[in-house]
Structure formats: C-alpha cells, structure tokens
Design a protein that fits this description.
By secondary structure, the protein is an alpha/beta fold. The radius of gyration is 16 Å and the shape is globular.
C-alpha cells in the first residue's frame, strides 16, 4: 500500500486527479467510480479539467435499492450531476436499483465487469470499514449482490435525506472480489470519523469483519488520507 498524507480534500483531489490523468495517458479504458461526499472535490477537479473520457467506460460501485436513476437521491443522479453532465463517458454503468429480479440485475452487472475489466477503481471507506456497500461480514469472494445496510451506514447516509425513514435500507453493490479484480485501486478518506477504519484497514488483520482490510492483499493500492483520518496510524 502506498499511503499519501495530505492537508485537506483539495490537496487530495489534485493527487487523485493526477492518478486519473496518468491512467488515461497509460491507455486505461475503464474507471470504477464511487459516490458519497469523499470524491466530490475530485469530481470537481475532473469536471474543470481538459481530460477526455469520451472513449472510456465508467462502472459505479453501487446503487440504493428502490431508487430509479432520476431520483435526486440515487447514485446515478449523483454521478450525472457531479461528473457525467460535463465529462461524459462512452458508456457509464450504475447498478439497476429498481429491477424486480435483483438476482438477474446482479448477474448482469457481473457480466459488465467481466467484459470491461477495471483499470482504476476509486473507493471511499465507511466508518465500519465497508467498501462499496460491502458491510462487515461480507465474503471476500462476493460478486455483485444485494446488501442489507447496517444501522451505522444508514445513519451516516441520513444527512442526504429529508427524513430518516426515507433512507434506503438496502443497496445493490459490486462485490469485494469484483473490487479486488481492478488493476489499480485508489482509496480516499478524510476526517476523524474515518481514522479507526483506516488504522484497521492498514494495520489490522485481514478479516471479513473489516472489509477494507482485504486491500492489504492487492498489489497496487494508493491511499490518500488527511491528517485527521491518518491520526491513528503508527
């Protein structure tokens, strides 16, 4: 793991941008993307850059179950507003949150990933160590699947919804094995609330109770953290 400590999200976003730029220069074609507050500054830098993704493919990690892509709280909508409107890709894949047959939706998403191997995968990390929506206890061998979100995850996402009862309790997520299949992984984390998870991810045992710990087994991982998120590292 390569660990880069930064002062703030602005500095982190610039380093992340440099990685995306280098990936494009090295003929990367497929980018795995993440949602949430962590990548917002990075997406802002990408939006305002001269990078061209029109010949690239994006594959998002996850989507809330029950939300269509035009729902303002859906991750498809988030990506459209934060990146795709100004930086369109040749094709952008996001899991289908409204397909009745969720098993089929998961299988079809795995087929997309198999057809388009991910060159650079962007990740955040949850306070409980989840990556994508792969909560503690998720098998390291998992592919795309439906997830029951843990209370801590629901609570963390509640700030994006008008009422707590509006927060979805399930999602469809790329699996841990799918994440690990990416050639390169970039994980970004900011703030004191992520410090415990970052410490366990890097220094703790590799265990399914800390999903992000599996990244210790990947041969090309870059971690960008600010001082608050890094304050429990040795």
């Amino acid at each position: 793991m390569k660990i880069i400590k930064v002062k703030n999200q602005i500095e982190g976003a610039q380093i992340g941008f440099d990685m995306f730029k280098q990936a494009l220069e090295n003929d990367a074609k497929v980018f795995g993307l993440a949602t949430g507050s962590t990548p917002i500054k990075l997406y802002e830098v990408l939006r305002n850059s001269d990078l061209d993704f029109s010949n690239s493919i994006s594959i998002n990690l996850d989507e809330y179950l029950g939300l269509s892509g035009d729902d303002p709280q859906s991750y498809r909508y988030f990506m459209t507003q934060q990146l795709f409107n100004q930086k369109p890709f040749q094709h952008s894949y996001v899991p289908d949150g409204v397909k009745t047959d969720t098993a089929l939706a998961a299988k079809e998403y795995d087929q997309i990933i198999d057809k388009h191997p991910i060159d650079l995968q962007l990740l955040g990390i949850g306070r409980n160590g989840h990556i994508g929506f792969n909560e503690p206890g998720t098998s390291f061998e998992s592919k795309t699947h439906v997830v029951d979100l843990q209370p801590s995850t629901i609570e963390a996402n509640a700030r994006f919804f008008e009422k707590p009862e509006d927060v979805p309790t399930q999602a469809i997520s790329m699996g841990i094995a799918s994440v690990m299949s990416a050639k390169h992984i970039l994980l970004m984390a900011y703030g004191e609330s992520k410090a415990e998870a970052i410490s366990k991810m890097i220094n703790g045992p590799v265990t399914e109770e800390m999903p992000a710990s599996i990244l210790q087994k990947h041969n090309s991982v870059t971690i960008i953290v600010d001082e608050a998120a890094a304050n429990k590292l040795n």
